[in-house]
Design brief:
Blueprint (H helix, E strand, L loop, with lengths): L25 H17 L12 H12 L7 H6 L2 E3 L6 E12 L5 E11 L3 E3 L3 H10 L2 E2 L1 H16 L3 E10 H4 L10 E6 L6 H12 L4
Parallel strand pairs: 2-5
Antiparallel strand pairs: 1-4, 2-3, 3-6, 6-7
The structure holds zinc ion.
The site of zinc ion has 6 residues, from loops.
Length: 213
Amino acid sequence: MIDDDENLPNRSEGISGYHKIDRYNPELIQNLSTHYEGVLSQIGEDPTREGLLKTPERVAKALLYLTHGYDLDARQILNSAMFKEEYSQMVVVKDIEVYSMCEHHMLPFFGKAHVAYIPNGHVVGLSKIPRVVDVFARRLQVQERLTNEIRDCIQDTLQPLGVGVVIECRHLCMSMRGVQKQNSVTTTSAFTGEFLEDKTRTEFLNLIAAKLS
Ligand SMILES: [Zn+2]
């Protein structure tokens, strides 16, 4: 995983080797930096003062990191780690960290995703579920679409008996501006197959509400 944004422009092997990242090239960073320099001037700042000298470049690299999901293929990630298994009970991965950016304000929204599926002959490596969440979250998003994209990706690829996705996020565009409802959390959900049945959906919702003791 990329954890040091200062190194991004020099990476050529891509994130975890899944996909080459052509977007982190010096020319792109330079172009974006020029735009951000203009933005600084427009808001009344002096882009030549010491504290801001490297800011346009840092913001450019940060933005590319925050949107690196465009370079990744979630279906390919799942396909690479699917295997036959007769297990047919619900598999739940809960409390997956979500960091995304709303497409209306380009401000962060963040929280947790809970994902479940009921295998139909195939399971997937557990670590791939959070990766799928990340691939779709690291783009400009709305929470509703993010929820559906995760559901559809797992449904189409793994073809399980059902998928359930619940996402709970705080949106900085709500808490930092406008209505300033500081503590409000937005919850979205999407289901397929057996999760459309009350009994299965309730079991899933109970499991994600339960605390490990
Ligand atoms: Zn927004």
